[in-house]
């Protein structure tokens, strides 16, 4: 599956179009980055709700 996603994201776009995006790709990238550095950003209201 990862190979297919890489192929899709590397696809050429039509003129004047943005990069090809895969649903969930940004989320997966942020999760991987957070795991690599050992912490994640959490919005203050969510953090407070979790602490309550």
Give your account of this protein's structure.
The protein is an all-alpha fold. It has helices spanning 2-9, 25-37, 44-51. The radius of gyration is 16 Å and the shape is elongated. The chain has one domain (2-10, 18-51).
Topology:
Layout: H1 2-9, H2 25-37, H3 44-51
* Number of DSSP helical runs: 3
Largest sheet: none
Order of helices and strands: HHH
Question: Roughly how many Å is the radius of gyration?
Answer: 16 Å
Q: What is the averaged pLDDT score?
A: 85
Percent of residues in helices comes to 55-70%
- The shape is elongated
Structural class estimated from helices and strands: mainly alpha
Strand portion: under 5%
* Overall number of domains: 1
Q: What low-confidence regions span 5 or more consecutive residues with pLDDT below 50?
A: none
State the total count of DSSP E strands. Answer: 0
| CA(first)-CA(last) distance | 39 Å
């Amino acid at each position: 599956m990862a190979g297919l996603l890489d192929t899709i994201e590397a696809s050429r776009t039509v003129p004047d179009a943005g990069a090809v995006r895969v649903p969930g790709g940004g989320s997966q990238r942020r999760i991987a980055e957070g795991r690599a550095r050992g912490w994640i950003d959490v919005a203050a209201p969510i953090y407070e709700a979790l602490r309550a």
